[in-house]
Protein: Aminotransferase class I/II-fold pyridoxal phosphate-dependent enzyme
Organism: Streptomyces camelliae
Amino acid sequence: MTDTAEQDNGPDRQQDDERSPQERLRDRRMAAQRQARRTLSRAGWGGTLRERLTDLMAAAPEVYDLDEQSDIYGNRIVAALEERVAGLLGTEAAAFFPTGTMAQQVALRCWAARTGDPAVALHALSHPEVHERHAFSQVSGLRPVRVTDEPRQPTAAEIRDLAEPFGALMLELPLRDAGFVLPTWEELTEVVEAARERDAVVHFDGARLWECTEHFGRPLEEIAGLADSVYVSFYKSLAGFGGAALAGPRSLIEEAKTWRHRYGGTVFQQFPTALSALVGLERELPRLPEYVRHARVVAAALREGFAEAGLPWARVHPGVPHTYEFQVWLPYAPEVVAEAAVRQGEETSVMLFANPWDGRGPGLAVTEVTVRARGLEWTADDVRAAVRDFTDHLPDKA
């Protein structure tokens, strides 16, 4: 029987065997997440093309006149989206970009030309330093100056004491790789003031700025108003197909549109992405504060669940989440906890930890937890029960 099975499934089995253990585990995790009956968040981008298009067509008539002519090189619906974003952020203008990487490079090179200084002060864990293959220096002629590598937001004292001059300060709000952390409102205003004292402009990497209002207790326009320019994403918080916007003074945005063209970002037609962004602004944006509040309930229940399970050490970071995303740290090798998370999903159809686990030193793993609409269905008791089941899939905790 074994020989027959291997012969009948030879090509598929060979292909499967060529994948690394990490790739096979990744595929199992994604399959378990798709099939899970309960999960704290289900990413829309993981759906099929049919599902994504069906959802868009169901929601689009609520946000835009579908009988209008489609866009050409950034007019019509794209221009309407830009106007909507500028209104939400309280800026004079906004420009649509296909990616945030492009938007931020353009913004900061425009500021560098105006200040005469290509140095950009930023956190060592900020997106351009970690995820963009040195695009600032390799593509845009900018020079990153690291303020700190501590897993927290920069302080006003660090900005004042930075040993070299800089033309712009870039602040990532929230700082994703440090645990989606934010400063307090008072700390943020002090950091901005410190940059102004050094005659620098301030740019917010606000990919997830939409999520920050609950933590700061301020509306979007007041938060964005602290900066000279702001970038926001349409898919990281709003579940759009992609895309980003750069918002700021009208003169900066007009210059940025010129550079957008030079960078190849003036795309012929972008109406599906623009439509999905408008849907996100209409449907998801109002719900983000609720997600943040419930993420705090989930985080507290996770802490309690791990304590009840008798784990020797576990950490939820930040202890009280600043957004609806946060980190969980456990004292295991990443492949061990990743296997436990996948098996829980496969065996119970409950996916407590749906994101990958990364190693952060010997015997220490970290994952990101996201709480969105699906997570609102979970009570604290549900979370604690899921933690008990998850830890039952771990090796002995002694």
User: Anything to note?
Assistant: The chain has 17 helices and 13 strands. The domain at 71-268 is CATH 3.40.640.10 (Aspartate Aminotransferase; domain 2). The two ends are 41 Å apart (CA to CA).
